[in-house]
């Protein structure tokens, strides 16, 4: 039988597996940092209305530059980030994964490199591979904070074209202080100068503020965002970035024409009309996240400080065996391959109770 390796695939793809958290049908799924609350009914109605309108024009290509959507996203960022941004500062694509892919197609590529401080969001390295960008695994401390001096040394040594900073970081949950990001930006400018991509997929759940105000006067800084987490719209596939207008112009050199369908644009616009309702759940999820941290500690687990909608907990002699035992109790969490640690997304109070019961039982076996 013909398999992948019998095909003339690129050398760097040989023997590799596609990214993917298991999509298992179990009662409690807390493994992909989704928002557990379905969209409210009035929003579902509004989406149907806007999609119906869009459907009448589906014989035509959509707005290639997604101007209305980018204008509304800029308004949301301006209101929530306390920093004025316009349509020209914002770009949107099918999930922030596509935003990151477009950024690496633009600023990375063959003969170029990107660095991330690991463990971090594993798609950064995978998208680097997919775009032919060399990947450098930068260091983190034992407690998963970024060791600034070591990070600056790595940037000076490797002179990467792209530097990734994820804050709050996935899978560890901790935020990166603004001073650290600023220092990394300075180091990256001194070494190359390179682009610094701050992945703020979880920023709405953070105790701290967004780094959007840092964009002022820093044309090599990009902040990437998503509607998959705080907006509770992972199925919509809508990610976006904020940056200097020149960055927005640059990514258009690689975007496919009409990449964002009219249905996606209409749905995202409807969701943005309901921003306040959607973000209403964020406070609830933050409270549940804090409860998970407190209860996990009370049970006797170690927990990494979390600014996200998930919590990293451990330590386990065999994290994968622990993952399996939690799954046997009907709760799916995530094994990100960080030795000794697992990650759980904050769900509804009932889902979190089921998770806490499972890990309370597990603790007795350890
Ligand atoms: N960045 C980080 C840090 C993430 O954890 C995720 C999703 N797990 C993404 C980006 C991508 O999200 P999406 O493509 O759904 O916007």
TrEMBL record:
It catalyses: L-histidinol phosphate + 2-oxoglutarate = 3-(imidazol-4-yl)-2-oxopropyl phosphate + L-glutamate. Its EC number is 2.6.1.9. GO terms for molecular function: histidinol-phosphate transaminase activity. This is Histidinol-phosphate aminotransferase. PROSITE patterns: AA_TRANSFER_CLASS_2. InterPro entries: Aminotrans_II_pyridoxalP_BS, Aminotransferase_I/II_large, HisP_aminotrans, PyrdxlP-dep_Trfase, PyrdxlP-dep_Trfase_major, PyrdxlP-dep_Trfase_small. The keyword Amino-acid biosynthesis applies. Keywords: Amino-acid biosynthesis, Aminotransferase, Histidine biosynthesis, Pyridoxal phosphate, Transferase. Its cofactor is pyridoxal 5'-phosphate. The modification N6-(pyridoxal phosphate)lysine is found at residue 229. Residues 28-358 form the Aminotransferase class I/classII large domain. Belongs to the class-II pyridoxal-phosphate-dependent aminotransferase family. Histidinol-phosphate aminotransferase subfamily. HAMAP family: HisC_aminotrans_2 (MF_01023). The gene is hisC. Homodimer. Pathway: Amino-acid biosynthesis; L-histidine biosynthesis; L-histidine from 5-phospho-alpha-D-ribose 1-diphosphate: step 7/9. PANTHER family: HISTIDINOL-PHOSPHATE AMINOTRANSFERASE, HISTIDINOL-PHOSPHATE AMINOTRANSFERASE-RELATED. The lineage of its organism: Bacteria, Bacillati, Actinomycetota, Actinomycetes, Kitasatosporales. Residues 1-24 are annotated as: Disordered.
